[in-house]
Amino acid sequence: MKESIRLRSGATVPQVSYREAQAKNYLDRATLKLMHLAPDGAPAAYSEGKNGGVVFWFDPEKLTESDPELWYAPDARQETVKLESGTEIERMSMRRAASFGYYPKERLTAMHLEVIEEPVAFTRRRDKEIVYFYDKMTTLRMPLMCVKCGKDVRFKKKLCRACYEEDLAVRRAEGDAHRNAYYGMDRSRVLFFDLELTGFYDHDEIISISIFNALGEKIMDTLVRPVHTKKWKRTEKIHGITPEMVKDAQTLEELTPQIKEIFAGADNLIAYGVSTDYSHIKYIYATEKERKALHSKIRCCANEFVRYIHEHRPDIEHASLTDAMACFGIEWDGVAHTSIADTIGCMKVWEKLFPHYYENEPEANE
Ligand SMILES: [Zn+2]
Question: Which CATH superfamily is domain 180-353 in?
């Protein structure tokens, strides 16, 4: 069976026997050194070394003259040591080693690289202790470890499976406490809303507003006549609102006093993907203080759904309103993707996420 290894450089190197390597005139490192040659690129093959290590073979066609510095050490501190395999390696400074891509094992480990070949050079520490250098080119990329325990291979979110499960259990418990709390909200003061726009950008204008309360009562459902935009061909296909339909509608400015009154009477304003809606509706308020007050009442049903599926349904990958409704088995009320149907859909999803949103905590002694 032919084995091969994949080096960190991405090169795949096949295993060969010593006999095959010789037949192909492959050279090992010791021979390269004697010939003052250096590899130009990844090794051509490898064999298992005598003492369990790895011997790399280099293609004689892919060699370069080695830098004179590699075989001519001007500082005259020449010293070699003989490895167990019989190969002699040379002493060189840390700086010179790095210029050839040779590093101590700890450095390579810190780079998540695994050393499989014997050392290619060495240096001595101040206390004369040997520090071996290994060729970065022939290392393997190590799997990344869990950031929490450091013992196992990462599974998700930089954690191993066990740490991920543990972390998920904590988040799930927090999420469940948040969702199952008794909020005691007044259904008439919790509003669900949906806006349709002429486009997706900040300068786009609102062309429809739907607001329902949590009793399912329609508070406002109106088209809005934009004042700057004349056509919106692209979004027209999505929401079906044409310039003709809005030509007699009120402008946002005309509707503003009514909208402000509705918002003033609300404790919460909830939408599915509320950030776009907020970034347009906030302009009915002139001051930053009023906008902040509005923002503090706003809740995003999509964010809550995303949190829920992260904690309970990792199998669900998408989080559109349609996905959320399907997840809880909620049917569309009316034509899907009209403002009214979306608003009612959002209201129902919210009630599945927060089953006690409109209830007070039961008495402890009951
Ligand atoms: Zn772990």
Answer: Ribonuclease H-like superfamily/Ribonuclease H (3.30.420.10)
